[in-house]
Write a structure and sequence with these properties.
With 116 residues, this protein is an alpha+beta fold. 60% of the residues lie in helices and 12% in strands.
């Protein structure tokens, strides 16, 4: 008898936990913003500052090194996602003007002219 009660309680717990996790996922998914609505302002600000500090033109690597200073100070390598985020921010605020020579041939970027 006790085993049946325990098994029934376990099944009840299992069903309720699945329902609870499903509901949490559903409500989170409903409140999650679309990718087009998310402003990448922080990355764009960092990229704009880096380009300005480097004289208006810079490679993707130079901007990434200035944007991820904390990672570099902690002696961590920048991974491909970091460079992808930098390229994505630069695509919004800068114009690619060519490719540099050397290993990997990074893209050279120049700030877009402001529309005033």
């Amino acid at each position: 008898m006790a085993l049946r009660v325990a098994r029934g309680l376990f099944r009840l717990w299992l069903v309720l936990s699945v329902l609870w996790i499903g509901w949490e996922g559903y409500t989170t998914w409903q409140n999650f913003p679309d990718e087009s609505d998310v402003p990448y302002v922080d990355g764009q600000k960092a990229a704009r500052r880096a380009l300005w500090a480097l004289g208006g033109t810079a490679t993707t690597t130079q901007v990434a090194q200035r944007g991820y200073v904390r990672k570099i100070v902690r002696s961590e390598r920048l991974n491909s996602d970091d460079y992808w985020y930098v390229r994505r921010a630069l695509a919004e605020i800068a114009v690619p003007i060519g490719r540099a020579g050397g290993r990997g041939r990074p893209i050279i970027w120049r700030l877009k002219l402001s529309k005033k």
